[in-house]
UniProtKB/TrEMBL annotation:
Species this protein is from: Cereibacter ovatus
The organism's place on the tree of life at top rank: Bacteria
GO molecular function: ATP hydrolysis activity
Protein name: Type II secretion system protein A
SUPFAM superfamilies per record: P-loop containing nucleoside triphosphate hydrolases
Bilayer-spanning residue ranges: none
Residue ranges of every copy of the AAA+ ATPase domain listed in the record: 46-215
Amino acid sequence: MAIDLYMNFFGFRERPFTLLPDPDFLYWSGAHRKAYTILEYGIATRAPLTVVTGEIGVGKTTLLQYLLSSVDPDIRIGLISNAQGERGDLLRWVLYALDIRADPDADYVSMFQQFQDFVITEYAQGRYVVLVIDEAQNLSIQTLEELRMLTNINANKDELLQLILVGQPELRRMIQDPRLEQFAQRIAAAYHLERLDETATRAYIRHRLQHVDGSGEEFTEAAIAAVHAETRGTPRLINKLCDLALVYAASAEERRVDLPIIREILSDGVFVGPFTQGALNPGGVMLLCDPVPSEKNEAAE
């Protein structure tokens, strides 16, 4: 297969650019380090609400996976991915995430009492409960308010229940809705994870190559610049394009990925990038994304 071909050709022990969130490959850009610090801060201070947002594919889920693998044993974490539904449905998601068995016919009051008893029991045994909601932008205003009501379990000076919400930029806009004023007031910290700039993209690509026993020099500077321009620094898209580039390079028996290989991939139409209006780069290759602003205009990491 083509993948096996390039792994053998370059001497990699595994694929350097997969699409699955793998904490072993985590690259600590300045932005990713800050986002993770906010997550740690939320847990360490027992903040009632912590929020991390970012565009699709910037590495939010990878950060969550790393967090889940490194929390203290006195913290009971429940992960909810892509929860949807009306009132009561969320509570069932919560119980399921914490491995709490609920009667299928139980009403909302019964489920809430079961959840509250669980949180209090965990606290009595020296453990804190943290609920992590991934893809939280899919929740409705009413469901977010229901989440806030769950934190009413907290009493006195101790926070028995903490919530961490991770989602796309829509989540950030949602929590600015006037109807969620009480919700917003309980957010201890919020961070928006930006895409990688060109310098971070270069370091990201080299990091992943070296992680699988590559030299880190399998991509030329010109190729890396083209990858950044085409992907706008989105890690998931960088992985897609770099993976294809290694396949093309190995099939042509080229030891380095250079700009002509990136151009060939784009010309063949096998890479699907950001769905925005196309623009011609200086080399004449049609890009799927808008022109990338100059570095002096980009937000600092």
